[in-house]
Structures are given as C-alpha cells and as structure tokens.
Amino acid sequence: MNAQMLAETTRAMLAEGKGLLAMDESNGTCDKRFADLGIAQTVAMRRAWRDLLVTTPGLAQYVSGAILYDETIRQATIAGTPFVRVLQDAGILVGIKVDVGAKALAFHPSEKVTEGLDGLRERLGGYVAMGARFAKWRAVINAAPSGAHLPSEACVRANAHALARYAALCQEAGLVPIVEPEVLMDGGHSQAHCLEVTEGLLRHVFAALNTQDVALEAMVLKPNMVVAGRGCAVQVTVEAVANATMLCLRRVVPAAVPGIAFLSGGQTGAQACAHLNEVQARYGDRSDQSQPWSLTFSFGRALQHSALETWAGSGAHRESAQRALMHRARCASAACIGRYDASMEL
After folding, report:
1. Any catalytic annotation for residue 111?
2. Which of 55, 96, 164, 217 has a CB 3.0–4.6 Å from the CB of 212, allowing a cystine?
3. Which residues contact 194 (CB under 8 A, 6 or more apart)?
4. Is the pLDDT score of 147 beyond 70?
C-alpha cells in the first residue's frame, strides 16, 4: 500500500467546494431510467449519455471525481477520446464501482447482500491500469417500519464484512475505497428508526474495517442522511435531518476518517442540497474539535435527473442538458460549503 499516494488521492477527492459525480449506474439501472423517458436502451445511447456527462464544459469547477461503471470506464467519446482521458485532462479523478450488485440474502426475505469479492483483486489491478484512483462498493439495508425485525443481524454483519474486505483490497491495490453503507429510504419507517438502524450499521462497518486492518485515513465514508422513510406520514424538517445525521455520525465515525460524502438516496436534487447545506451550516466548522471530517456530496440521480429529462435521448438537447447538470453541480457545490439557498432553484 502506497500511503502517500492514497493520502493525495483522498485530499483531491475532498477538495473544498467540490464533490463526486456518481455516474456508476449499472446497465440495467441506466436502461430502466431510459425506458421511463422513452429513450432507446442500447449501448450507443448509454455511451451518448455518458459522453454528455463527461464532456460538460467546466464540470471540474464543482466535481473532484466521477465514479464510473465497468462499461463506462472502457468507453470513448463520439470523437474517439477515452472517457478516462477526458476526465483526467479536465482535472477530475476517475473512480470505479466494483461491486456486482445486491443479491438476495439466503433465508432472509426482503434483505440483500452485495456481492463481487470473487476475483476482485485482479479486477482492481485492471482498473488501476486503466487510470482509476478510487473505487466504490454499495451495501443496501432495508430499515422497514419501526418494530419490524429488520434489518437482521445476519444482513448487517454480512454487508459490513464485505465492505471491509473490499476496502482492504482497494488499499492494497492503491485505490482509495469509498465505503457506502446505505439505509434505504424505501418504506414507512420513522426518522427515529432510521437513526437507530444507521447508527447500528455504522458500528458494525467500522468494527469490520478495523478487523481487516483498513487504514481509516485513506478512505471516504458515503452514508445516507438520517431521514424518515418516503412512506412515513411524518416527514421531518431540514433542521431535524441535519441534527439527527450529525448526532449519528459523531457517535460512531472515528476522527481518523478524512471525509464524509453524503449520498442522495432517492432525494430530489433540491432536497439533497437543502439537507447537505443545513449539515454544513450547522456543523461544518472544522475548527470545532467535535467535527473532524470534511463534508461533501457524492450524488447520482440528484445531479443527473434534470439533465437526463432535458436530454431525453436527443442530440439537439445536448447543450441544454449539460447546462442542467452544471446547475445541479453548482447547487451541490454551494451546499457543501453552506452557501446554498432555495432561491438558486428559481
């Protein structure tokens, strides 16, 4: 493990006022979003969409790194330039999603475990050779309504173990691991239940990371914010989300972790920015010893959705879609330094 190189990559990922563009949707997920908008679900259309994203002028002003999918890291622009080179030339770090998706957990209906450890060492070496500097692995946890016996200990432990083994393999290969344990917004659970589940999950994750000797100084945590399930009758305020989220993180996340890049997790772009801004405004003062981490974003749909709707598969809408992406990136950038305001959405 090259500790100095990993530290340099981590610092670049967490550059002030910048965040990560998560454009690592699997082909299946990408095709589903295309289908919802009447876009043809083909390799050519996926490449055209990703070409639009990576060639957006000025994107590096707000984005420090882009997380790619296996198909994407191997593709080139319509002009023939590899996507990796386009990003590197723009000053954007290249990342790669390395898990192979969440699969049903045996004997535990409604729960999943993320797979992809088999052959991972070899795949990581290949991605490093292609230019990747960091990687991502996502574990998904179903919170369920309060009082239900979910998540199970088996599910939490299995996913924490997989995240830790992935992170160790990444650091061995010279990649900074993004560790993403996500408590899903799906369901009618309360914010209090989300807090309980998120805190318990993170405790297991950091215990597993310690067992696998992962260097906490060379990783980035990508957690969910502590929100009520989208089906919950009581939706809490922006202030309540910020307070519960930071209460959870302060209880569990070691100070050695250099940065936290929040996922959007099904929130709209405006919701994700409002929540991140409130967290930063209330808790982002790094001179406060109780706040040791850089706070930023690693958004997927929250950055891309409006651009995808604008593009809708038409080359004629390419520049308009890129402007939509830049608007969302600008809002997210403002939020991660506490300068976002709802008026930016007008």
Report:
1. no
2. 164
3. 143, 183, 224, 226, 227, 228, 229, 244
4. no
Q: What is the CATH number of the domain that holds 314?
A: 3.20.20.70
Inside any domain, residue 146: yes
Which helix (H) or strand (E) segment holds residue 321: the answer is: helix 318-335
Split into its structural domains, the chain has a count of 1
Residues in a beta bridge with 202: none
Bridge pairing between strands 93-97 and 63-68: parallel
281-340 residue pLDDT tens? 999 887 777 789 999 999 999 999 999 999 999 999 999 999 999 999 999 999 999 999
- Cβ atoms of 166 and 99 within 8 Å: the answer is yes
Q: Residue 90 domain-assigned? A: yes
- In this predicted structure, the answer to whether residue 94 has a pLDDT above a threshold of 80 is yes
Over 67-94, what HEC string results?
Answer: EECHHHHCCECCCCCEHHHHHHHHCCEE
On whether residue 343 sits in a domain, the answer given is no
- 4: which 2 tokens? 């100095």
Q: Which one of the listed residues 18, 112, 136, 222 is annotated catalytic?
A: 222
Structural domain of residue 310, as residue ranges?
3-338
**Is the pTM for the entire model greater than 0.85?**
yes
Catalytic residue among 25, 180, 182, 278: 180
Contact 192, 275 (CB under 8 A): no
Query: pLDDT (tens digit, 9 = 90+) per residue, 176-195?
Result: 999 999 999 998 899 999 99
CB 65 within 8 A of CB 97: no
Encoded tokens for 31: 């095709």
Helices 43-54 and 301-311 meet at what angle, rounded to 10?
Answer: 110
Rounded alpha-carbon distances, angstroms, from residue 173 to 133, 168, 308: 10, 9, 34
Q: What is the pLDDT of residue 240?
A: 97
Average pLDDT, the chain: 95
Q: Is 97 assigned a catalytic role?
A: no
Angle made by CA atoms 266, 133, 123, in degrees to the nearest 5: 85
